[in-house]
Each structure stands twice: as structure tokens, then as C-alpha cells.
Amino acid sequence: MSLFRTKSIASLQAEAAAEHGYKRTLGPISLISLGIGSVVGAGIFVQTGQAAALYGGPAIAISFIVSGIACLFAGLCYAELASMIPVSGSAYTYTYGSLGEVLAWVVGWCLILEYLFSGAAVAVSWSGATRDILNEFHLALPASLANAPLDVDPDHTIPINLGFVTFQLQTLKTTGALINIPAVFISLVLTYILYIGIKESANFNNLMVLIKVGVLLALVGYGIWYFFGHSASVLANWTPFIPPNEGTFGEHGWSGVFRGAGAIFFAYVGFDCVSSAAQETKNPQRDLPVGLLGTLLIVSFLFISVSLVLTGLVHYDQLNVDAPFIYALQQVHAPALFRYLIEAATLAGLTSVILVSLLGQPRIFFSMANDGLLPATFAKIHPKYGTPHVTTWITGISCAIISGLFPLNLLGELISIGTLLAFSLVCAGVLVLRRTQPDLPRSFRTPWVPLVPLLGIVICIVQMFSLPAITWLNLTIWMALGFAVYFGYSRKHSKLAKA
Prior knowledge:
Layout: H1 9-17, H2 28-39, H3 42-56, H4 60-84, H5 90-96, H6 101-136, E1 150-161, E2 166-174, H7 181-195, H8 198-229, H9 231-237, H10 253-264, H11 284-313, H12 324-331, H13 336-370, H14 389-405, H15 408-412, H16 416-436, H17 451-465, H18 469-493, H19 495-498
Antiparallel strand pairs: 1-2
Helix pairs in contact: 2-8, 2-11, 2-13, 3-4, 3-10, 3-11, 4-10, 4-11, 4-16, 4-17, 5-6, 5-16, 6-7, 6-13, 6-14, 6-16, 6-18, 7-8, 7-13, 7-14, 8-9, 8-11, 8-13, 12-13, 13-14, 16-17
């Protein structure tokens, strides 16, 4: 039973009130900006068009509503726990206070997977976007210094038979490149910004968010203007709003709407980074729920509005391209300025996503080290800058190495499943604490308990089982490594064990 020992909520609240070296500089606006910075990335500029073409048609806007509601279930649970336990550590800390140490370790290990590999994956995307922009100005980088030296080899796989499922294990090949320099560069630059202070990091993120949200709102404004001048063509592109299904499940019709919701669900993932900055928030009991739910509300509005504009400009079946917004704007002969704005917004969006990913990971390390599950060095706070400087550089350098060596298609597979597992355990934590400690003061209460947490758990589990078998194998390998660390070091050094 020692595996499931829990930290008392009182001790967690005492930690939140104690002096810890962090500087409390973040308010609700900065928290919402962090959330938007993490959520609104390249996905909205690419994934929207592909999901519309393949699955939902113009009804991809409904898919965003469905995904937003699904993500809201987890967000409401996050908001209750964040207001009760305003400690950096996000889902790891909430699980430690509700479900026990070993499950908290699982969540913390999954969050390492989410933050580190998502930061590396987006750094690779940032490199690709930068190369495209430089090519327009005839400033091409040498291919050997702007691509991953390793890539997935589709011609050589290893068959794995587990009895109930058989799949092909991917192997790697060399590409001839030396290192992806742009990906390494952006990882290290953003690590330095995070090292020198949370206020400086938040200000830089605010600038990136201002650029990309401003461009998206300008795009929505252009769409409204275009609608009034070309309403017949827009309505024709929107008709039928839900294209009929031709017999294949998931290809249009209502099944396509729901498959599209599954495909774009991960566009919302990342809002949980808001709770990782709890100990740098001025009034966490009030501001964390505002930051979490405000993020979901704003990004849902942006996703739905932009998807309607995109499918109104051109017919949905033309949108399965790498840059659907630029393609659509070219088809309606929009000013060339919009193309450059979209490219700038894409670059700003990617930059802020990397920044927030690299911000969240060190704070998870801090909380785990503070509990004795990792060495005490991981909990050091810089005396001048008030940041977890050791783990910030560990995270940033690791991100630079991974993004410099590996391709995007390999990194992307490792992110989603760990995040969904963390979400489901947070929802379970609300159920447990409502039953075991119903009288605890809660400045924010998740509505309709147990319905909302149960729906959050079910949706996350369904999404997990929709992922391919190779992703489950990757998670199994990652968790095996994590349990080796836990049973080899963390369990015996746990402060709860010593107590």
C-alpha cells in the first residue's frame, strides 16, 4: 500500500504558501497568454484544412466544438484541483494528493514525455517554417545543416507479434545531414529567455501571442468582408454543410464530424501548462481557473471562426495541402500581404509553443525533486532570477539534442498518449477527493460531479485506444524506463517514505 501513499492537501497548501524562491509575477492575463501560446500553434494553420478535406467538410467547425467540449471536461477538473492545490507540478501534484505516489510518478513521467518531446517536435517544425521563409528570399540553408541526420526507414521494419496484435516496428536510417541547426538554435535561445526570469519569458510569450492572435483575427475580419462581397460563392462552398457520407465510416457525414473531432482534439492539448506556473502566480486560487478556462474559451472561438473562414473561401475538397490558408488566400486573390502575415503568425505560434513547453517541464522536475522522487539538484532555484535554472538548462539542452537529431514524424507519435493518460487521472482525482475529503474548501468547483469527470475519463480513454499499436509500444518502453527509476531511486528517497 506504500505505493499509493498520498500527500495531504494541507501539506500541499502549506508548500504553496511557503517561501520557495519563485517570483510571483503572473496574473490572469499572463496565464491566459501562456495557455494560448501553448495551444495555438502550427496545428491550426495545417490540421484544420486537412481535417476539413478528409473528414468533416465545412462541418469541421462542429468538430472543433465537439473537441472543445471534450477538452472542457478535463479543463474543469484541472480548474478545481488548481484552485485547491496551487503548487507547480500540474497533474503530477494533483495526482499525488488524490490517487497516490506511484500514479503521481506515472503522471509526472508522462508529463516529461509531453513537454520535452512536444518542445522538440515543434522546434523541428519551426526549423521547417524558417527554411521556407528564407527560401523565398533566396537565403537557403545548406541541407546538411537544416535537416535531421536520422529518419524513419519505411522500407525496413521489424514485425512484432504480441499475440493479440501484430505491427511493424519502425527502424531508423541516416539521411546524410549533420544536424538540424535551426531547431537547435531556437531551443537554446528560448532556454536562455526562460533562464533569466519568468516575467521576461511571459513578456516574450505575450508578444508572440499578440502577433499570431492578431493575424488570426485579421483573417477572420477578411473572411467577413469577403462573405459580404461574395456571399453566393461562400454559401456554395458551405453547401452541404455536412457533406454526405459515401459509405466509408469517418469520411464525411456525422461520422466524419466525430472522426474530425478526434483528429483535431490534440490541437487543444497544452492548456495544462497554465497550472505548472502556479507558484509564480499572484493569486493562484482565483487566477488559475481563469487562466485555464479562459484559454479554452478563446482558442475555441479562434478555431471555430478560422475554420469557417477557411471552408468559406474555397471548397473543402481542395484543402488537403501543407499550407491551406495560404492556398485559400491565393485562390481568392487576397492581397499578398496576407501570405506574409500567415507565415509570420505560423513562426510566432511555433515559437510560443516551444517556449511554454520548455517552461512547463522544469517546474514538473522541481515538484518531483521537492518530494524526493528526483535528486535535490532538480529543485534548485536561481537566487537572482527566481527560476529553476538547473532543470531549465537540462530541459533546453535535451530538447536541442533531440530536435537536432530526430525527424518530426517520429517525435509526434510520442506525445499524445501520455497527455491523455495524465488528463484522465486528473479527472479521477476530482472524483476521489470529492468522496474522501468533501469538506475541503474549493474556490472553484467542477460542476455536475460525477458526470463531468466521468465523461472526461471516458473521452480520454477512447482517444488513447484510437491511437496505433506502435504508440502503445513506445509508451510501454517509456514507462518501463520510468518504473526502473522509481523503484531504483525514487521510492526509497521519497520524503513521504522517510516520514
